[in-house]
Amino acid sequence: MVTGAASAFPLEASSAYSNVNQPSGPVRELMKHAKKRPTAAPTEETDRTEMNRRGLRRYWPLLALAVGLGLFFAFDLGHYLDFETLRDHRGWLMARVEDHAIVAALAFMGVYAAATAISAPGGTFMTICGGFLFGPALATVYVVFGATAGATLLFLAARFMFYDALHARAGPWMDKMEAGFQKNALSYLLALRLVPAFPFFIVNLVPAFLNVPLKTYIIGTFFGIIPGTFVYTWIGAGLGSVFDHGDSFTAEGLLTLEIAVALSGLALLALAPVAYKALKAQKRS
């Protein structure tokens, strides 16, 4: 008997303890209503604020590039892209390259990449200057890496900001152009890079609007600009003798007919796979 009473006591105590900790009836009802209370629906002002934030995030690359280009002109940096300035600072520049070759190379590639990304003028001058400072072989490597990096940044910014809007406005014909270009994207891109008639920044932007894969864009840019780059760095390597004789030098007329024909021939060679595919498809049909 004693044992049974003792064993029943903990159960009663436990039950009483649990009842004490349970909320009372009115409190329980309030808790139920609080759980069922719907969350406030987003207002039109909230939606507009969120859209504005997304718009700002979407266009920040364009703002950054625009600010960079604005600073270029505001500080008149193009004034320094002159062969007379290069002649006047020849000794100092050559000494920096000789004493700090790695730093000079990295700085040159960084400046070239930044100038390409903001589409600043003076690409030809910088390429010739690279040949003068580093020699044609090393300068070609530095220019190709710097130009490819800068072009890729511009490519990504243009795709991120304008691709959807452009295709929405252009309609189906843009999709057809994109599909046709992507069938032979690498060949077309190599040809565009090789032909000197097309401005460099235009060729940087067009593939972004045609949804060319990033890998294809990088490969086409890297290898497509090598021949033209080598031509200009080779010219730059001979600037020393021009300066020694006190002769003036300008970039006008450097692209001779022979060089233009040679580069155009390479462009046609890049389009050979396209012609082969077209002939093969014609035979099948």
Global outline: globular
End-to-end separation in angstroms reads 103 Å
Number of strand segments: 0
Major beta-sheet overview: none
Uncertain residue segments = 1-18
How many domains, in number, for the residues? 1
Tally of contiguous helical segments: 16
Proportion of residues in helical segments = over 70%
As a whole number of angstroms, the C-alpha radius of gyration is: 33 Å
Q: Please identify the structural class as seen in this structure.
A: mainly alpha
Strand content: under 5%
Mean pLDDT level: 80
String of helices and strands = HHHHHHHHHHHHHHHH
Descriptors:
285 residues, mainly alpha, 16 helices, 81% helix, disordered N terminus
Describe this structure in words.
The protein starts with a helix and ends with a helix. Helix content is 81%, strand content 0%. The protein has 16 helices and no strands. It is globular. Helix 6 (101-117) packs antiparallel against helix 7 and helix 6 (101-117) packs parallel to helix 8. The chain is an all-alpha fold. It has one domain (83-284). The model is unreliable at 1-18 (pLDDT under 50). The longest helix has 35 residues, at 136-170.
